[in-house]
């Protein structure tokens, strides 16, 4: 290895190491909240003893949650490496040659997503083990089979088939919409290789069979039959007509969570799409019309989303949710036309697959509720992947040197990291201090009937971080910290 190459390799490891340390530090400052208290209590162990019978089929993520809420250092290490893995595999599945600049771009885009989505995924351990781990495992599979879409013939190590079995089965036991999408992806990969290469790979078949087996294992849990029978108090099939369901969920929730609240992501994708369309020379009048209309709409929708994000104008746009949902639906339709501007057929097909992830990762929630910000996470990730793939295509079909942006991307990453890290660090400091004070107060006054607990100063970054009496999970917070049930917790802004 040449000396320069060795320096470059060591520099890359140092770069990735700093990122992992940052993610670990964020996790250290992320308090256990909401459902985490429940899983940390005796109820969490009771669920394990019944192996989650009639609870859900998320066997892997449930067990992960039980372990992580009981070991802070394991939680820090796990969150750090899984978050790093998310960004790393995002670059692997969208670029021909991943670089530090592309990794920084993924960092910026992922952590510029809606604070509401962040709070229910990165800012909440229960959300993390379900919604982030599931998408990472899907990206791992896409990394392995990416050559199906990008090259003539994939090659695998002889032991890969065994890894495919494990990956296919266990990745299905995390979250339901991820399970369904994994089966869809597995079927698609087998079909594509059969159609394109006229052969079937045992590795792909192994993953397909394992994913179907995992899906059967998940959905054989009695909880899903209870949902179908309307006996589940939390999840239910909506009792409206199908049309009303779709309109209500998309208008009042999906549109906002996936599109309107993610301004920077929408602007990035719009710019990438405009670059790809502008580079293409239409061969037909129809393509020319699509090109002109698409470019115009990307500009227009970008302006609308930007204006809706301005605090002084947010209320105005919030009063027109139906109109905004129509605009976002048109935006999605026009996004689906962008691959027409891609000359390479394999990249074109892969781009449509990534777009299918945006749609299919949210589609199940048209039939079952509730649909919250965490449910939009996977769709937003696939939106980002689509935009990154467009940029990668543009890079390799023009003289555009993306690596020249490394310095400004580094500066922007620092801005995003500090902007996110400061309020979460403040939350972590307050959480550690308040837990210590709870223990001290209980020791000094064991028969007290009221307990003052300091409020997390930036609660928007976490899911239900304050154990107020109106929160159902507060009873488990009390159990975990040896607080009597009859003690009333009062959340106060600050304790001097």
Task: Describe what this molecule looks like in 3D.
The chain has 496 residues and is mainly α. The strands form 2 sheets. Strands 1-2 form a two-stranded antiparallel ribbon. A two-stranded parallel sheet has the order 3-4. The termini are far apart.
Annotate the secondary structure layout.
Layout: H1 3-28, H2 35-40, H3 42-49, H4 59-68, H5 72-94, H6 100-110, H7 115-119, H8 125-145, H9 147-150, H10 160-170, H11 176-197, H12 202-219, H13 222-228, E1 236-237, H14 242-260, H15 263-279, H16 285-308, H17 311-318, H18 321-335, H19 345-360, E2 368-369, H20 377-397, H21 406-444, E3 450-454, H22 474-480, E4 488-492
Parallel strand pairs: 3-4
Antiparallel strand pairs: 1-2
Helix pairs in contact: 1-5, 1-21, 4-8, 5-6, 5-8, 5-20, 6-21, 8-11, 10-12, 11-12, 14-18, 15-16, 15-20, 16-18, 19-20
Characteristic key phrases:
single chain; 496 residues; mainly alpha; two-stranded parallel sheet; 22 helices; globular
Please report the number of helical segments: 22
Mean pLDDT: 92
The helix-strand sequence is HHHHHHHHHHHHHEHHHHHHEHHEHE
Biggest β-sheet strands, sense, barrel: 2 strands, antiparallel
Task: Note the gap between the termini.
Answer: 59 Å
Shape: globular
Helix-residue proportion: 55-70%
Structural class from helices and strands?
Answer: mainly alpha
In short:
Helices cover 68% and strands 3% of the residues. The chain is an all-alpha fold.
């Amino acid at each position: 290895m040449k000396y320069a190459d060795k320096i470059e390799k060591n520099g890359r490891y140092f770069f990735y190491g700093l990122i992992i340390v940052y993610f670990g530090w964020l996790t250290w400052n992320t308090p256990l909240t909401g459902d985490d208290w429940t899983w940390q209590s005796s109820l969490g162990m009771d669920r394990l003893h019944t192996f989650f019978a009639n609870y859900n089929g998320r066997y892997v993520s449930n067990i992960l949650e039980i372990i992580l809420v009981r070991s802070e250092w394991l939680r820090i290490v796990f969150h750090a490496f899984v978050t790093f893995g998310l960004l790393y595999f995002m670059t692997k599945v969208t670029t021909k040659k991943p670089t530090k600049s592309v990794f920084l771009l993924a960092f910026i885009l992922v952590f510029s997503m809606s604070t509401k989505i962040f709070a229910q995924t990165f800012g909440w351990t229960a959300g993390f083990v379900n919604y982030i781990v599931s998408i990472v495992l899907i990206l791992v599979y896409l990394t392995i089979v990416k050559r199906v879409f990008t090259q003539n013939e994939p090659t695998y190590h002889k032991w890969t088939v065994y890894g495919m079995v494990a990956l296919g089965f266990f990745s299905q036991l995390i979250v339901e919409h991820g399970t369904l999408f994994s089966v869809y992806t597995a079927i698609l990969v087998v079909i594509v290789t059969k159609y394109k290469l006229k052969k079937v790979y045992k590795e792909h078949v192994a993953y397909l069979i394992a994913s179907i087996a995992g899906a059967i294992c998940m959905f054989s849990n009695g909880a899903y039959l209870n949902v179908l029978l309307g006996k589940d108090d939390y999840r239910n099939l909506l009792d409206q007509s199908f049309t009303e369901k779709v309109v209500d969920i998309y208008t009042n929730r999906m549109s906002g969570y996936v599109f309107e609240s993610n301004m920077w992501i929408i602007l990035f994708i719009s710019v990438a799409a405009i670059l790809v369309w502008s580079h293409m020379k239409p061969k037909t009048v129809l393509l020319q019309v699509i090109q002109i209309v698409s470019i115009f709409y990307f500009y227009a929708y970008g302006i609308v989303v930007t204006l809706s994000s301005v605090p002084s104008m947010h209320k105005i746009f919030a009063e027109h949710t139906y109109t905004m949902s129509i605009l976002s639906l048109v935006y999605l339709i026009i996004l689906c036309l962008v691959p027409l501007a891609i000359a390479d057929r394999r990249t074109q097909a892969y781009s449509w697959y990534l777009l299918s992830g945006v749609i299919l990762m949210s589609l199940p929630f048209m039939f079952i509720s509730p649909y919250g910000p965490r449910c939009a996470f996977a769709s937003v990730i696939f939106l980002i992947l689509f935009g990154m793939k467009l940029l990668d295509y543009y890079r390799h079909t023009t003289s555009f040197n993306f690596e020249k942006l490394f310095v400004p991307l580094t500066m922007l990453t620092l801005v995003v990291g500090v902007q996110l890290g400061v309020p979460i660090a403040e939350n972590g400091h307050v959480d550690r201090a308040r837990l210590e004070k709870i223990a001290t107060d209980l020791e000094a006054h064991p028969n007290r009937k009221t307990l003052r607990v300091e409020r997390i100063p930036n609660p928007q970054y976490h899911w239900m971080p304050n154990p107020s009496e109106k929160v159902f999970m507060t009873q488990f917070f009390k159990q975990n910290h040896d607080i009597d049930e009859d003690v009333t917790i009062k959340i106060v802004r600050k304790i001097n």
